[in-house]
Write a structure and sequence with these properties.
This protein is of the alpha/beta class. The chain folds into 2 domains: about 1-215 and about 385-400, 3-Layer(aba) Sandwich (Rossmann fold), CATH 3.40.50.2000; about 225-385, 3-Layer(aba) Sandwich (Rossmann fold). About 35% of the residues lie in helices and about 15% in strands. It has helices spanning about 15-30, 55-70, 75-90, 105-115, 170-180, 190-200, 225-230, 245, 250-260, 295-305, 320-325, 355-370, 375-385, 385-400; strands spanning about 1-10, 30-40, 50, 95, 120-125, 185-190, 205-210, 235-240, 265-270, 285, 305-310, 330-335, 350. The strands form 2 sheets. Strands 3-2-1-4-5-6-7 form a 7-stranded parallel sheet, with helices on both faces. It has a 6-stranded parallel sheet with strand order 10-9-8-11-12-13, sandwiched between helices. β4 (about 95), α4 (about 105-115) and β5 form a beta-alpha-beta unit. α3 (about 75-90) packs parallel to α4, α9 runs parallel beside α12 (about 355-370) and α11 crosses α13. The chain is globular. The termini are close together.
Length: about 400
Amino acid sequence: MKVMQINAVYGVGSTGVIVEDIHNLSLKNGIEAFVSYSTTNKNPADIKNGYVIGDTLGKKIHALLSRIGGKQAYFSSFATKKLIKHIESIKPDIVHLHNLHSNYINLNLLLGFLAEKDIKTVITLHDCWFYTGGCFHYTAAGCDKWKESCGNCPKKMQDTPALLKDNSAKILKDRKKYLGSIKNLSVVGASRWISEEASKTFVKEKKIYTINNGIDTEFFVSTPSDFRKKHNLEDKFLIIAPANKWFLPINKKTFDFVSQNLPEDSVIVMLGCTEGQKQGLPKNVVALDYIRDRDELRKVYSACDVFANCTREDTFPSINLEIQGCGTPVVTYRNTGAQETVDNKCSFSVESGNEKDFLEAILKVKAQGKESFSKDCANRVKENFDRDENYMKYIELYKSL
């Protein structure tokens, strides 16, 4: 059996790591596995059966053109035709599509080819883009046009900005046409939430599955760290927080409320800050750069007392799993798939936007002590979200197709 995965990235970022894990597991299980991608942080020569899609200039042109009318994945025709020739030379039994919205591929060309050749196709919903008029998520915007017909998009200047014209209605119409034309299409949601959302759309006629993301549970474990000593935080209650969520305008109220009402011995460790975000922060916030080294990252995860993730839209945030694997409990907003990463026993979810309950859950961990939750957090992740166990479900799906 031959399987080809296609994704924007390989081995980097959340989807890139997932694709790499599935690729390696497929090879271990006797599948002729191939992978096509746009960018990677690895040496392409070291990626078995790898294929690079497009080039830097083509992606820049694609990015420019897509911003005119928000028509992401409508360009890169030459790069996509080369990819199609590559697929024809491989003759895969199954093509598995992941994230295709990063300025590198012509979606309609690719889907039209897969339909014409009647190639069994799997798509994984890492976000909502495959079944909307171009947005990645819609919950925070309170929009449900995607169920029928888009247009007058409330996120016109977000996700994939449309500077001159709103083409969301056409984009959704094309999604229905091209995805609907693939007879052997299987849809996989990374969470129950997104699978249920997809079942409200035009793909409801297709087979829809749920396969949760997994993590390396042998790597993400509690790890000794000098992080507290290094930053002179040895006697502090440390709240680790993702800057890309906390600094969103929609979360300003959460940021202000939590930072202003924390006890004096508590500090927010803001992870992944830009230089601009580091300016003018309260005294109880420590700003860290984006950490790429996984070993350093798990040491920070292990050193902190609680992870506060005020995400408003997330399909299935793997970071919540990684941090719990390191023995650190999580407090998250529950909208979308984030609530499925916690059990409200060793980690907790609260109503999205309720900053009072959010702070109360953080202080609950402080009052009881991290050690009251650590063992259960790590055990739950190991039992439910081990990458090999979870991604074997993809291998089983391939075989069933």
